[in-house]
Amino acid sequence: MSKNNLINRRNKSQLIEEIMNEKFKRRTCSFYKYVKIKDPQTMRHNLLKDWSKHKILGRVYIAYEGINAQLSIPDFLWDNFILSIGEYKEFSSISIKEAVVEGHDAFIKLIIKVKNKLVADGLKESEYNLNKVGKHLSAQEFNDAMEEPDSIIIDMRNYYESEIGHFENAICPDVATFKEALPVVKKELANKKNNKILMYCTGGIRCEKASAYLKHHGFSDIYQLNGGIIEYTHQIKKYNLNSKFKGNNFVFDGRMNESISNDIISLCHQCDSPSSDHTNCNNQACHILFIQCQICYRKYEGCCSVECKTIYRLPIDEQRELRKKPNLAAPLKQYQQSVKPKLKDLIQEKNKLK
Fold it and tell me: Could you tell me which CATH class the domain 3-114 is placed in?
């Protein structure tokens, strides 16, 4: 099979229709591994060829430092997928985490990209050593450690992830990217190098880098939640443990989040009613990610503001023309990657004037 034959030529609507017409169930899973990959481009080609045969969908990043994947796999081909992973010596003993909440349409196509790094961290290789990371804790061990008086719990995710769910008493950095989080966390903990530091993220990959980074900077008592929030949730259900995580777990696919507890700790960015539902603004030139309750979703037609709703109602050709004028097409686009001023406050202020 040539590389040209691996290019997906179907449009989004065709892909969604194909997914909806499937007669089988799917399993959503994720995994990562920091391991030396000599030729990421060849690895990408081989995985794309193998997994396309198994109707696997999802998003995969490959770098010289390893692999990070979120996949949707036909249930009847699960064993074939496990065997296909085992054929690569680089991925031996890899830990595969199944989703907490299943979603048939989590992904609509298979994307495998070669990256410089698995997670954009902005670090030089001299700033961390992945052979020196924090001690991995099980769910029960993490619960017990949180009860110790000198423990500090750090959420290594972005603000829009922790906004809808986090561990009790966790420090949640007010940042939009992992790259921003690292120096913020180091500064926050500058005078607490003798405390027990407990770190967590979605599946564990960010904590590997973060714990190595802190160890490099003189922190010695570093621990991380093994398998992240996903594995924690599986373990609390399996062993009937008390969940110290409140709310929902944000995920980077069509499901948007997984319910971990019945608590709704976040508010709609438009009306302040309890909600943990994320929406990408339907104005494609804006497309900001924000929290929107069902009532506001209907009122604003899945848009963040009256302006975006007006643009969204225009014929598609007119919308495309407006996208060439970003100040008109994307009223809040400039704040998409910034937490301050608060996106929620900006949304409410704009809609208050209408």
Answer: alpha beta
Spatial neighbors of 216 by CB under 8 A, at least 6 apart, are 127, 128, 129, 132
In the chain, where the domains are located: 3-114, 125-238, 278-352
Question: Which tokens in the block code for residue 273?
Answer: 């009613």
Angle between helices 228-238 and 139-146 (to 10 degrees): 100
Q: Are 62 and 40 in contact (CB under 8 A)?
A: yes
Distance CA 40, CA 281 (A): 34
Of the candidates 192, 214, 245, the one whose C-alpha atom is nearest the C-alpha of residue 135 is: 214
For the stretch 83-109, pLDDT in tens is: 889 889 999 889 999 998 887 778 989
pLDDT (tens digit, 9 = 90+) per residue, 233-276? 999 999 999 999 999 999 988 888 899 999 999 999 999 999 99
Neighbour-count burial of 21, counting CB atoms closer than 10 A to its CB (0-12 exposed, 13-18 middle, 19+ buried) = exposed
The listed CATH number (3.20.20.60, 3.40.50.300, 3.30.565.10, 3.40.250.10) that belongs to domain 125-238 = 3.40.250.10
Catalytic option among 29, 172, 201, 308: 201
CA distance 204 to 231: 9
More confident residue, 114 or 3: 114
Domains 3-114 and 125-238 alike in fold: no
| Secondary structure of residue 109 in the 3-state scheme | coil
Asked whether 103 and 255 are in contact (CB, 8 A), the reply is yes
201 is catalytic: yes
Please check whether residue 110 is in contact with residue 56, taking contact to mean a CB–CB distance below 8 angstroms. yes
Task: List, in sequence order, the alpha helices (H) in the chain.
Answer: 12-20, 40-53, 78-86, 139-146, 159-162, 178-188, 205-216, 228-238, 294-300, 306-312, 316-322, 326-329, 343-352
Picking from 163, 168, 173, 150, the residue whose alpha carbon sits closest to that of residue 223 is 150
Rounded Cα–Cα distance for residues 231 and 98 (Å): 8
pTM (predicted TM-score): 0.87
Contact 255, 101 (CB under 8 A): yes
